[in-house]
Amino acid sequence: MRKSWWKIVCVVLLVYAIVGGLLLPVPALRQLQETIRNLYYHVCMWFAMMILFTTSVVYSIKHLRTLNYKYDIYAREFAAVGLVLGLLGYSTGAIWASYTWADPNNPAYASFGSIVREPKLIGAAMAILIYFAYFVLRSSITDIDKRARVSAVYNVFAYAMLFPSIWIVPRLLPSLHPGQEGNPALNFNDIDARMRMVFYPAIIGWTLIGVWISILKIRLTILKEKSWLHA
Amino acid sequence: MHKISKFLVLGLTASLLFLQVFAQEQSGQVEMADGMRQSGKIYVVIAVILTILAGLIFYLVRLDRKITRLEKDNE
Q1: Which residue of A has its CA nearest to B33?
Q2: What count of Cα atoms within 13 Å lies in the side-chain half-sphere of residue A228?
Q3: What is the CB-side half-sphere exposure of residue A223 using CA atoms within 13 A?
Q4: Phi/psi of residue A127, each to 5°?
Q5: Are the beta carbons of B71 and A212 separated by less than 8 Å?
Q6: B53-75 tens-digit pLDDT
Q7: Nearest C-alpha neighbor of A24 from the set A208, A194, A219
Q8: CB-based contact A177:A118 (threshold 8 Å)
Q9: List of residues 6+ apart from A205 with CB closer than 8 A
Q10: Burial of residue A172, with CB atoms counted within 10 A of its CB: 0-12 exposed, 13-18 middle, 19 or more buried
Q11: Nearest to B70 among A2, A33, A223 (CB)
């Protein structure tokens, strides 16, 4: 194993996020009740995805500046793990929403029509599909240099599209998702001080495990392509 | 006409149900699952999740070691 200290930090923070996240007190909210603890898991998936996508686009730009093939591998693997975290965020959000504000079978909750029109869900789905297209684009180009360059340019556009689709447009439209008036979970009026004690370490922990998996994938890809990478 | 009245009845029932739930929840404290914590059974859940996490981390560490060995062999 290499450079293990941050991997230990990652494990410690994740254990803390689970033990503290389930045991420490949370504010009693009328609709969310104990499900507010999902903040430590569902929201962290999105944060980790955002950080990994940012890392990916940085390496894409680095690739465009230097045309070093190594950076293309970095960009690809960070985006892949970010996409996995995004899908986890989406599915955990679907579970959470169906028990708190979007159960079509519960007449007290919002109607199915308003769920389908929910801008946060549509925006997140768009963002995930845009990143799927990144991988489709990659695999459709056989020339390695061209693939690296074209997908690096596309990655910059995909990253630029993240902002309207998950940050801007959902804030302009009425939504059932909590934290509509500002940045969900970051706003100091939204989140209890007791919860921040677990929430921020949890973000770091989940992000680090994403980085760990990405780095393993990068090292494996470099090993596989070593024969001609240094040729 | 028939359809509209059907929707009206449905909507009225839905809003009445909603009001009832709302009234219940407005009266007094929010009911949290405190009993689960008092009985100590929440620790079982934590044990299960920690076991899963430990398994995943163990798997990642082994993968990491394997890749490191491969890298050394390749040098």
Answers
A1: A34
A2: 4
A3: 17
A4: -60, -40
A5: no
A6: 999 999 999 999 999 998 888 87
A7: A194
A8: yes
A9: A9, A10, A12, A13, A14, A16, A17, A44
A10: exposed
A11: A223
Measured torsion, CA atoms of residues A168, A169, A171, A177, in degrees rounded to the nearest 10: -120
Residue A200 token pair = 């921020």
A142-147 contact pairs (CB < 8 A, 24+):
A144/A69, A145/A67, A145/A69, A147/A72
Domain positions in chain B: 2-28+35-74
CA separation for the pair A203, A41 (Å, rounded): 8
| Cα(B39)–Cα(B33) distance, integer angstroms | 11
Spatial separation of the C-alpha atoms in residues A40 and A125, rounded to whole Å:
21
Question: What is the H or E stretch that residue A100 is in?
Answer: helix A69-100
List pLDDT tens digits, range A44-81. Answer: 999 999 999 999 999 999 999 999 999 999 999 999 99
A103 is written with which tokens? 């159960």
Q: Quick one: tokens of A6?
A: 């941050």
For residue A159, how many other CB atoms are within 10 A of its CB? 22
Tell me the whole-structure pTM to 2 decimals: 0.80
- Flag if A18 and B50 touch (Cβ within 8 Å): yes
Compute the nearest-CA separation of A119 from chain B (Å). 24
Closest C-alpha among A81, A224, A145, A42 to residue B67? A224
The answer to whether B14 contacts A107, with C-beta atoms less than 8 Å apart, is yes
CA atoms within 13 A on the CB side of B68: 10
Classify residue A185 as left (phi > 0), alpha (psi -120 to 50) or beta. left
- Residue A217 Cα, gap to closest chain B Cα (Å): 9
